[in-house]
Amino acid sequence: MDGDAQKGIQQLLQAEQEASDVVARARKARAARIKQAADEAQQEIKLYRHQREEAFKKLVEDRGGSMGERQRKLEQETAMQVVKMKQDVSLQRQNVMKMLLGYITNVNVDLPVDHTKV
Length: 118
What we know:
By secondary structure, this protein is mainly alpha-helical. The protein is about 85% helix and about 0% strand. It has two helices and no strands. It has helices spanning about 1-60, 65-105.
């Protein structure tokens, strides 16, 4: 019987070792599946991010272009307004000069009616 007990213990130890191996393989397989799932999720995230960025760029272009383009357009409009103002000033300069000289040279020296009685 002692041999049967020894044989039974050996079988139990061997079964325990096999169970440990099965558990270890299952853990490795689970870790590999988790890693694969994480990699696939990263790829999906990257693809989704790329799609959203492209959609955003298209939306920005559809609604008036990029900030650099808007800034350039604003600078052009400002420059055109400055040129127009300078033209207006040069056109009206002579008229304003004549008007100012008229006020300076045509001084009314008549006294008001109330001061002549003194």
